[in-house]
């Protein structure tokens, strides 16, 4: 087991009607002027935005609004938000939405207190040393951004989709999580969230770090819970308990609970980012295409942990042939993804003729000669994995 | 799933040589004058105390010392510590030790800023609203106090062993956890720690709250990891990875990761506290006697979750007869406890003739007419459970 720091200071306030506490929580965490960041119309249509605003008014906290964050969020909205925050002297960003909204709020929070271009943080030209406080009212269990210090933004002119990790400063101070808010998510978006949270765990689980039994068990247990609850949610979208279990799984998948003491991988995420940045697909759908392809490739190159996953998560009998066991596990994962409506190939993703050479060259331009850790992928390897997803 | 708050703001700095960071961490968290609290001679003999003091000196943090905390810690040491803290104007308590030391430090931290008797907090006469900061260098994985807001203290004149929960103010700001510090723990103390951390999980796992799959899976996974790693540690006390896995299990068993959204039980802990306060046995050893007795009694009164535990944690085949399945699970737990040197009966605990009527009457005097939640125990029930442990 490697040395590690576990630090998850976010206060998660979880359950029915919890959005009514938003104003009180913002006050508790010292907000004097809030900017509420949100996306498209669903937060407005559902009445959630109005309830959150009411809660802020009841707590006597002045606020301004920044709507219109798109999925796969882009830099232009961040620049807009930074400007408004400076003008309005905002000291807390309140993200009402899913990962795109939260990630945009984090980027703004870091950018407001920085003299240069916020994009410097994403390309590694500067380190985030301070940021405005970020808080969350979560509406989509998927990205785990409500409990992480990470943010992913796309630079619209260069088509770079890059992630930034600044857990010391960018973790939300509080996250309000009401599973009822997820009742009306379209089935496809629910399923994409499932793929995303499973991927967050698997990026940590597939590691060469030995003797990490507690990490393995937490990862496996969370994956098993996600699978079981996702099946229920797809059948009964208004099943509170299933929605609640799934929502909490999404958080612990990414707040550091899973994968302590392990070298993490993240190749599948990076392989996917290149797809969504060019073809504008939903991140989770891209992952349900890429992750099984990555795992299949791994059965030839580093099979051990894939086989353990098959046995412990999917209950594949351990026949003593790790490759066969692993392939059976992958087959069950694909069956599961398919059963909840997720694509398994580029074609099913709606990308009939992906430009694989472009994907590979962008990937290694952005991430360097080698990508990932479980096996350090060369451009030749990345190409083979993309091809397995055709 | 019930509404819940998950809030675990402690920064856990985990791994080899991490105690050298103590001074830097104390400075990061604003300490200006520290009181180092410790127990008997082992922290001195091992050189740990000297290394921690050096780290504080290197960070230019003045400190004073309070040694001599006993297992099953008592109020008199708390009063002593409060007095010293006030005189020396201490603003951070640094506990170097296990649960007794940490719990004493927390009691002092709360008491210093309170005008009345700190014991008021434990008997529910007052609520802890503020406290000095507490930090930890952990030497015994067992109590989980390094990640919890709880403390248990015994009032020496009335023989009341009572717990206090104040998660908003008493959670350590940081906990330094070096598994190497546990290499020299005597086997019996290691085993008692194992029973304690398993009990912390089982107190949460045995619940009537339905549809808590993610909580169940996290509890089961952590229990399985503890069992596997404990067996290794008993055989190879200097196996770093096994010690590391076990140490982290002890933390997540009690920092709130396990049991989110569940009504918790805690009857077994309360049944045990009455034993250790009268017979001064080690808490974990008392638990290894009481918990199987409590579970055995439950097979007659609320078998469902005990049977699930047997199947999922111990791999007992599900025969369709929950009572038989549950009893087989309990039998495997007892076999495991026995194999690592833990007692299973009062006699093995060294208490030949326990005064069960006294235990029962003290228990219900301290905890009220009913104890626990999985089944609300009456004095008659408590007596039957104690008798099952004879």
Verbal overview:
- Chain A is built from 16 helices and eight strands.
- With 390 residues, chain A is of the alpha/beta class.
- A six-stranded parallel β-sheet of chain A has the order 1-8-5-4-2-3, with helices on both faces. Chain A has a two-stranded antiparallel sheet with strand order 6-7.
- In chain A, strand 6 (150-155) and strand 7 (160-165) form a beta hairpin.
- The first copy, chain A, is globular and about 65 Å long.
- Chain A starts with a strand and ends with a helix.
- Strand 1 (4-14) of chain A pairs antiparallel with strand 1 of chain B.
Q: Which keywords apply here?
A:
6-stranded parallel β-sheet; homodimer; about 400 residues; 8 strands; alpha/beta
How much of the polypeptide of chain A forms β-strand, as a percent range? 5-15%
Oligomer: homodimer
Head-to-tail CA distance between termini of chain A: 37 Å
- SSE pattern of chain A: EHEHHEHEHHEEEHEHHHHHHHHH
Tell me the overall shape of chain A: globular
Provide the residue-averaged pLDDT of chain A. Answer: 97
Q: What proportion of the residues of chain A is helical, as a percent range?
A: 40-55%
Count of helical stretches of chain A: 16
Instruction: Give start-end ranges of low-pLDDT stretches of chain A.
Output: none
Across the major sheet of chain A, the strand order is 1-8-5-4-2-3
Number of strands of chain A: 8
The assigned structural class of chain A equals: alpha/beta
Biggest interface, and residues per chain? Answer: A-B, 43 and 43 residues
Main sheet specs of chain A: 6 strands, parallel
Rounded to an integer in angstroms, the radius of gyration calculated over CA atoms of chain A is: 20 Å
